[in-house]
Design brief:
- It is a single chain.
- With about 450 residues, the chain is an alpha/beta fold.
- About 30% of the residues lie in helices and about 20% in strands.
- It has helices at about 35-45, 65-70, 150-165, 195-205, 210-220, 230-240, 255-265, 275-280, 295-300, 315-325, 340-345, 355-365, 380-385, 420-430, and strands spanning about 1-10, 15-20, 25, 45-50, 75, 85-90, 95, 100-105, 115-120, 125-130, 135, 140, 175, 195, 250, 265-270, 285, 305-310, 330-335, 355, 370-375, 390, 410-415, 435-440.
- The strands form five sheets. It has a six-stranded mixed β-sheet, covered by helices on one side. Strands 7-8-9-10-13-14 form a six-stranded mixed β-sheet.
- Helix 3 crosses helix 5 (about 210-220).
- The protein starts with a strand and ends in a 14-residue tail after the last strand.
Length: about 450
């Protein structure tokens, strides 16, 4: 038997490759498909089917990429939508992979036509269920995509899918969701690498309910909706552009980089660590550390905007991959050899002030004249503690919260490490704020007596 769980860092996306006797199936593939092809070929398997659990919102699906390379059939869920590729999968439809059987299960809630896929083993008993975004380790799928007026209806459908379709498969069945901890497709996914239906029945906080009405009240909430989701939905109906049509982003000299920046009005996306960015960066840059790109670039950069990359100097494979997975294809190149070549060309750079946590505590206790901007999420604050008197604006909501910030006082920007704070600082700096300092480090070193952790 062939079984591989393929993880996509940043997106916290899980896809799956499974099969038997030389025949394989891929479930919810990402756009860059090399890993599926390599693992299948290495094991001597041919990919016969690609199964989609739902129309995805947070990344581009790789179904067409796989079909182009292997000729595999594509089967999509949400059959009420106008797909431009593949075939609709029906309730109860079965797919063979050698001696294994995969059966489609209609499990609406996250989306109206969402499908889960049950893997039956050699004895005909269910082994695994691939739930897409219906249920996760420690959480359930968000139900707000149809709007606030539909929350009760969609949450009710999700309850029926989980309690009446998935639970009856058996407590011992391994549950394989499409996302892990950190995904924007739910608010509190647990950091459990593997789970079962029985484990979730016992430990999942969203499932500890006495009635359908209680479940609806618990999960029927509106969550943040990144702007790029709308384009992902469109692409994943039409079929995303194939990656093979794009040329590899080229290394650029400082002069070429600067010329393209001016001519194309490109966004300069700096993916270096926060301390490197703070000491020197190209004026007007947006700082998003490379591992945070999947989570935040879609909030602050339009999909059609030309992008220029700044890294530590090496070929930015990870950065480009993260961008391609979320539809940011308009990459014009990257600064060859990093910022050192920018300086050697005589170009101007900028910097941002930083302070350590203990130094900020000293400033607070010494002068009392401070303004702390905390860009952590409410979930983080509730779990880790709140800084007394700090103003909390989640990073993703900062462009709507500028009016809450002073222009005549030093703003100390705080998150869990300093990485997101640097992104916030660049948003403020590019808007004209000069009196900003990024706080390096998290709550561990906090010792202010005037401004304690609550």
């Amino acid at each position: 038997m062939l079984f591989e769980k393929i993880k996509s860092p940043g997106l916290a996306h899980n896809s799956y490759l499974l099969g038997d006797s030389g025949e394989a199936v891929v479930i919810d593939p990402r756009r860059d498909i090399k890993v599926y092809l390599e693992k299948a070929v290495e094991a001597g398997y041919a990919i016969k089917h690609v199964l989609e659990t739902h129309r995805n919102e947070d990344y581009l699906i790789g179904s067409l990429e796989i079909k182009q390379k292997t000729g595999a059939d594509i089967w999509h869920a949400d059959t009420h939508l106008d797909y431009q590729y593949g075939e609709p999968v029906e309730e109860g439809q079965k797919f063979q992979a050698g001696r294994l059987t995969v059966e489609a299960l209609h499990t609406p809630g996250h989306t109206p036509g969402s499908r889960s896929y049950v893997l039956y083993g050699y004895e005909g008993e269910p082994w695994m269920v691939f739930t897409g975004d219906v249920i996760f380790a420690g959480d359930v799928g968000r139900v707000d995509f149809l709007g606030e007026e539909k929350l009760a209806e969609t949450a009710g459908a999700l309850y029926d899918s989980i309690f009446k379709k998935i639970f009856p498969l058996g407590d011992e069945v391994i549950l394989c969701p499409a996302h892990g901890a950190g995904s924007v497709c739910a608010s509190a996914i647990a950091d459990r690498e593997w789970t079962t239906i029985g484990i979730e029945k016992k430990l999942n906080p969203k499932l500890q309910v006495e009635s359908k009405e209680e479940f609806i009240e618990k999960v029927g909430k509106m969550l943040e909706y990144p702007p790029y989701f709308t384009k992902m939905e469109k692409y994943n109906l039409e079929g995303p552009p194939l990656l093979s049509q794009y040329e590899e982003p080229a290394p650029l000299t400082a002069e070429e980089f600067d010329r393209i920046r001016e001519e194309k009005q490109a966004v300069v996306l700096d993916a270096r660590m926060e301390v490197s960015f703070a000491s020197a960066h190209i004026p007007g840059s947006l700082s998003i550390w490379k591992d945070n790109l999947p989570s935040f670039v879609g909030w602050f950069v339009p999909l059609d905007k030309p992008i220029l990359l700044v890294t530590e100097g090496e070929y930015p494979l990870e950065e480009i991959t993260h961008l391609y997975r979320t539809g940011f294809d308009n990459i014009k190149g990257y600064l060859s050899d990093g910022l050192i070549k920018w300086h050697m060309a005589g170009k101007k750079s900028a910097s941002i002030n930083t302070v350590t946590v203990d130094r900020l505590c000293q400033i607070i206790d010494g002068s009392g004249d401070y303004f702390i901007l905390d860009v952590r999420s409410r979930d983080e604050i509730e779990e880790e503690g709140e800084i007394q008197d700090a103003v909390n604006i989640h990073l993703t909501q900062l462009p709507d919260g500028y009016s809450e910030l002073p222009e005549d006082r030093e703003i100390y920007i705080f998150c869990g490490s300093g990485l997101r704070s640097m992104t916030a600082a660049t948003l403020l700096k590019n808007r004209g704020y000069d009196n900003i300092s990024v706080v390096l480090g998290g709550l561990i070193g906090w010792s202010s007596t005037s401004c304690p952790i609550v």
